[in-house]
Write a structure and sequence with these properties.
mainly beta, Immunoglobulin-like, five-stranded mixed beta sheet, five-stranded antiparallel beta sheet, 5 domains
């Protein structure tokens, strides 16, 4: 015997037995009580129940069978419209179906009916800023503008949808500052590492009908700090900062460490490797811009007991091809200590062995094969041929089979622009991984050569400070991030072909 159909509906409110009725005016009590048509449970009410205007003390929320009671812990303001947003805070007991709904009431004689709608995009990518908190703050003289989102919780708040859009309702007329932020820790304030968008001037709610448009950015960190220190077995130490340090040093208190990645490739993180097998309870002395400290990294990826640790390898081939002008490189998961050339073989398409060519080591973990025979199609590295600092090796032979492409493989892009529209701007060409493969100052005709076949996107940076890079915004300086304009169409580059594109940009 089978039961009935599965319940897929969110809990429904019994409006007759709930208090107050939605839209009630002259509300004077200190609680609301909602009756549902089935048994319910609470889901993270501190985050999922949002009251606007905000209160300093969180209300008390309790659920008994089919009832939810919310009791205010501080007096409600007079002549004020309140909205209580239940954002998946209530679910049914059996199937855990949750719901999104809103309760609105006023302590005055009418419900405020003003609205404010808009859209937030991420300035760097022009993509929708989904799930950002939108905050309205009354204009006050007691807090400086650049401190508002860091020190204050918003008076009114909402959240952007998946398209980065928001619509704030039931607002009292007046002057407000508006901020949007990626409130990752849900504390309703802006913290280090969280993106923000803002408007320099106040918004006149009740007078403005236009859509608000804002661009979110990650502010430059104030005081430079270490964001994280991680130790990954068997000997990798990663140190991440909130910005780019001007000076630093690090040393193991008991042994030697080797630098793999400095700040040139990624200006806010460093990678070091232990020169020998790790020891328990390791400590490192770091000096960051003249300030010394001892750090104890968090441990990650410890191997299972009794399970052998083997080297992993990756190459720089594009699928099964070695690009023109590229050198075959094999990168290992750990720093190399030694390798045996007698266990490394070069083979042609018929698997006939070719003369050996001694590789060179690049950095700590990469072998580069510079003088390869043009007939080479296979590289074989036998098990045991390489050994890491930590005496780890590969268990099975490694094969890399490929075709060596000649320079005619590449494509070329000719880009025509009106250079008078954004004089001094920078044009960047991005591949499908959103990596910048080339950039040039804007001019009437730009030429991009040696392009790997595939889809590309163009973007233009309005380089106001002339540094050739995109510059983020600053609340302190009341400065928006530099504008980025994307070409809406992808550009397909074919092998051995030249493509010409006209990009017409309207000056905004």
């Amino acid at each position: 015997m089978q039961g009935g159909p599965r319940d897929t509906f969110a809990p429904q409110i019994d409006t007759i037995q709930s208090y107050p009725k939605n839209g009630t005016t002259n509300f004077q009590d200190n609680f609301i009580e909602l009756k549902f048509k089935e048994f319910i449970s609470l889901n993270n009410p501190s985050e999922n129940i949002i009251i606007t205007p905000q209160q300093k003390i969180a209300p008390e929320v309790e659920v008994k069978t089919k009832k939810l009671k919310l009791t205010f812990q501080e007096p409600l303001e007079p002549n004020t419209t309140y909205t209580i947003n239940f954002n998946r805070a209530v679910s049914d007991i059996t199937e855990k179906n949750d719901s999104i709904f809103q309760v609105v009431f006023s302590t005055g004689a009418f419900i405020d009916s003003n609205q404010l709608a808009g859209e937030v995009k991420v300035s760097r990518t022009n993509r929708a800023a989904a799930n950002y908190m939108i905050g309205l703050y009354p204009k006050l003289d007691t807090i400086q503008f650049d401190s508002i989102p860091y020190l204050s919780k918003p008076y009114y708040m909402a959240q952007t949808n998946d398209q980065g859009q928001f619509n704030m309702k039931y607002l009292k007329a007046g002057s407000y500052y508006i901020f949007a932020m990626d409130d990752q820790n849900r504390n309703l304030k802006l913290n280090d590492g969280e993106s923000v968008a803002f408007m320099q001037n106040t918004i006149e709610v009740g007078l403005v009908d236009d859509q608000i448009e804002m661009k979110a950015f990650l502010p430059d960190a104030g005081q430079l700090k270490m964001r994280s220190t991680t130790y990954t077995y068997p000997g990798k130490i990663t140190i991440a900062f909130t910005g780019a340090p001007s000076s630093y040093s690090i040393r193991d208190l008991e042994g030697k460490i080797n630098l793999e990645k400095d700040l040139s490739s990624q200006p806010d993180s460093l990678i070091y490797w232990l020169a020998e097998n790790p020891r328990p309870k390791m400590q490192f002395l770091i000096n960051l811009q003249g300030v010394s400290d001892t750090i104890k990294p968090l441990y990650k990826n410890l191997p299972e007991a009794g399970k052998p640790v083997l080297l992993k390898m990756e190459n720089n081939l594009k699928q099964t091809s070695l690009l023109p002008k590229d050198t075959l490189k094999i990168t290992f998961s750990e720093p190399l200590k030694k390798w045996d050339m007698n266990s490394i073989a070069f083979l042609d398409k018929d698997s006939t062995e070719l003369p050996k060519s001694e590789p060179i080591q690049i950095g700590l973990r990469t072998l580069a094969f510079l003088n390869m025979d043009k007939a080479m199609r296979h590289l074989k590295i036998d098990s045991g041929a390489v050994q890491s600092f930590y005496a780890h090796t590969i268990e099975e032979p490694y094969w890399a089979s490929f075709e060596q492409l000649d320079t005619t493989y590449f494509g070329t892009l000719f880009l025509n622009m009106d250079s008078t529209v954004y004089a001094g701007a920078v044009v960047e060409l991005l591949n499908k991984e959103n990596e910048v493969v080339a950039k040039q100052r804007v001019k009437n005709r730009l030429v991009f050569v040696d392009l790997i076949p595939g889809d590309y996107q163009l973007r233009l940076i309005v380089d106001l400070n002339g540094d050739g890079e995109w510059t983020t915004g600053s609340i302190k300086e009341s400065r928006q991030p530099e504008q980025i304009i994307y070409n809406k169409e992808l550009i397909n580059i074919k092998s051995k072909w030249e493509k010409e594109v006209d990009w017409i940009i309207q000056n905004e």
